[in-house]
Amino acid sequence: MPSLPLRVLHVLLPASLIVCVACQEEEPDPRGFDENGTWSLQEWADNGSDFQDLSKIDVRRDSFFLKFSEAKGTVAAAACSSPLDDPPDYSPYSSRCRGGSDDEERLWDCKCFSYDWRSELSQVWLQFEPGGGKPPNPNTADESKVTMVDADEMDVANTIRLSPLPAGAFSSDGSSSVYLLQKKSDNLFDESGCWEECVGG
């Protein structure tokens, strides 16, 4: 076979080098799963106790949510209490969120966190006050103020395991609490108003 003219080789060689350089610069996705969207708390356990299945408790089903946005680096947590609870009770132990009529105005407690992936199985979270502007970078924060969260996708469809959540979120002790959450429609989260609290819209 006759060889290509030299001038053609000169054109092809730089093009191939450009393609290779682009491949080398492409960084792998550090995420263990696609976290974007709304997740409803299904089961949880504290201090090695047995799992509590909220999906079987009518007054607390779909009453505790997380909503992630990778683009904003933000997680909003929403916990529900019924007006029947005095004082308000936002704990998955005892809240009566859905114990009243369907049209009653429920109470919501919002917590805001910035987050990032550290590995395929680990995230770092940092709580911040709502309405405070751009969320802080958890990677540059004091280690004593962040929470390392084990994050794993379960074999059950659209279900993730997080452990622990930052102290106080869904009654987490900040060290041993374990949460199983299932992907749900954003419409369920919208009732809380917590996304607007955390990201401003």
General description of the model:
The chain has three helices and nine strands; from the N terminus they run H-E-E-E-E-E-E-E-E-E-H-H. It has 201 residues and is of the alpha+beta class. Strands 1-3-4-5-6-7-8-9 form an eight-stranded antiparallel barrel.
Cα distance spanning the termini: 65 Å
Strands of the widest sheet, in order across it, are 1-3-4-5-6-7-8-9
| Main β-sheet description | 8 strands, antiparallel, barrel
Shape: globular
Domain module tally:
1
* DSSP, total strands: 9
At CATH level 3, the topology is Lipocalin
CATH architectural group: Beta Barrel
| Helix content estimate | 10-25%
Q: How is the quaternary structure best described?
A: single chain
Unreliable stretches (pLDDT < 50, length at least 5) are 6-13, 15-22
Distinct helical segment count:
3
Spatial extent as radius of gyration: 23 Å
Helix/sheet category: alpha+beta
CATH class: Mainly Beta
Give the helices and strands as they follow along the chain.
HEEEEEEEEEHH
